[in-house]
Amino acid sequence: MLYAAAVSVALSTEPGDEVLQAREDRPVVRHGDQVRHPRNPWSESVQSLLAYLAEAGFAEAPRPGGVVGDHDDVSYIEGISGDEACTLVQSDEAVAEVAQLLRRYHDTVEAWQPDEEPVWFDGRRGTGSLPGELVCHGDPGPWNLVWDLCRPVGEQLVGLIDWEYASVGTRLTDIGYALHYLAPLRDRSYWHGVLGMARKPRRRHRMAVFAEAYGVRLDEDLVEAVVASQQAGVQMMIDLAALGRPRQVQLIAAGELEREQRAVDWTERHRHKFSLAGVTVAPDA
């Protein structure tokens, strides 16, 4: 069962607070060294996850600040994130850093067994009961990465933020989502308009870089995971909008559902170009 949500949320602000996100359904405010989000039924579970990660030494996740009244807080991570961060994943080195961070997270969270059963945004519970299941970040797109460009190349990725979509899945759930936007398996409007790439990406090569850095095989299962991630994103938008979730309702009204469906259709049309099926591998898409 998926949770419903209120139509709009208001967060109280104080002098000196910085509005990081002004969305009506999910305003986000920086309050000193804390980032304040609206409280949700799964906020305590996210806080519990972040507390475990902090204790386990996973330094790239925000530290939990607690749930108080109508909001929850996490620590602010200094660096470049959001739209600007999307332009920082063009190089092989950046793709490898993302893969290594995701591998460290998965290796860390795999052992998490909290005393109280967590409940996630999609109504799922626990940390996984089937072989290979764990708690995924759920939204490891380039906009949720934090970079510190003052560090040496290979050490610039310092944060993975926005854990509201954490839920139970497998490693391939997060990997497929990440590669959907990193390869990316989307058309020019994304790789040029969002990632800022001047030339068409070598998608299979970028998938291979990610796979090697994470430590998985670049095979048909990996390709299928990316396709499944695209399809799951479309279905989730439909499901959450049907429940009245303001964000998804607004996205559909703005044409986002059609854009995401076009991304799925694009992948289906071009899949043979980056698929590994068969003896001969076709030129890159």
TrEMBL record:
Pfam families: APH (PF01636). GO terms for molecular function: transferase activity. Residues 134-183 form the Aminoglycoside phosphotransferase domain. SUPFAM superfamilies: Protein kinase-like (PK-like). InterPro entries: Aminoglycoside_PTrfase, Kinase-like_dom_sf. Keywords: Transferase. This is Phosphotransferase enzyme family protein.
